[in-house]
Amino acid sequence: MKISKPLILLLFVFSSALSANEPLISKKKVPLSIALPLLKSIDIHSIVVGTGPIDMYAFIDPVCPRSRDFVEMVFDNKKMQSSYTYHFFLYELERFHTKNLIANIYKAKDPLVLMQKIMVKKEKVSDLENIPQNIASKINQISEVAIKLDIYKRPYLFVVKPQKGGK
Asked: pLDDT digits over 42-76, tens only?
C-alpha cells in the first residue's frame, strides 16, 4: 500500500496541531510570602556566593548542564557577586542520580570549593558510598522544602530584594 505525499503532509499537520494544543509546563511559582519563610528555614544548608544586597535562592543539581552554566556564570562574574548574594541549595534531579555526589559536597571541609571544582572546573570526584545521618538529614530538609515549593527544574531561582531600610 502506497501512501501519498499529500496524505502524509495532512497527517503531519494534523498531529502537529494536536500537539501544539498540549500545554507546556506552565506552573506558577509559590508566592514569595509563602516561599521566603521556607527558604529561610533551610538557609543554614545553603552554599553562599557573593555579598550583594539582593538575595537569590537557587536550587541546583551539580551535574545538570543548565545548573553548571548558571554557577559558572556566577563564579566568573564579580559584578554578579557584588550585586547578589547567592544561596545555593543542592537538590537532585532524579535522572542524574546525584544524591551521593551532593552528599559528598555537603560533607566536604569546604563545600563551596568542592562545588566549584565539580560544577565550574568540571573535575570528577567520587560519590560517597555511605551518606552520614547528618548529611542525609540536610539533604532531606532541602528536599522537603523543594517539594513544598514545587521545584521541578534546575536551576530554580527565587529573587528577594532588600526591604526598605536595609537587608
From this structure: 999 999 999 999 999 999 999 999 999 999 999 99
Report pLDDT for 11.
Answer: 38
Q: How many folded domains does the chain comprise?
A: 1
Whether 35 and 150 have beta carbons less than 8 Å apart is answered as no
pLDDT of 15 higher than 70: no
Residues 6+ positions from 89 with CB-CB distance below 8 Å: 42, 45, 46, 47, 57, 58, 59, 60, 142, 145, 146
Classify the phi-psi angles of 82: left when phi > 0, otherwise alpha if psi is within -120 to 50, otherwise beta.
Answer: alpha
> What is the CATH classification number for the domain harbouring 84?
3.40.30.10
Yes or no: say if 62 and 119 are a contact pair by the CB < 8 Å rule.
Answer: yes
**What's the pTM?**
0.82
Residue 13 lies in a domain: no
pLDDT at 135: 98
Residue with cell 532541602: 142
> Do 58 and 88 form a contact (C-beta atoms < 8 A)?
yes
143: part of which helix (H) or strand (E)?
helix 133-148
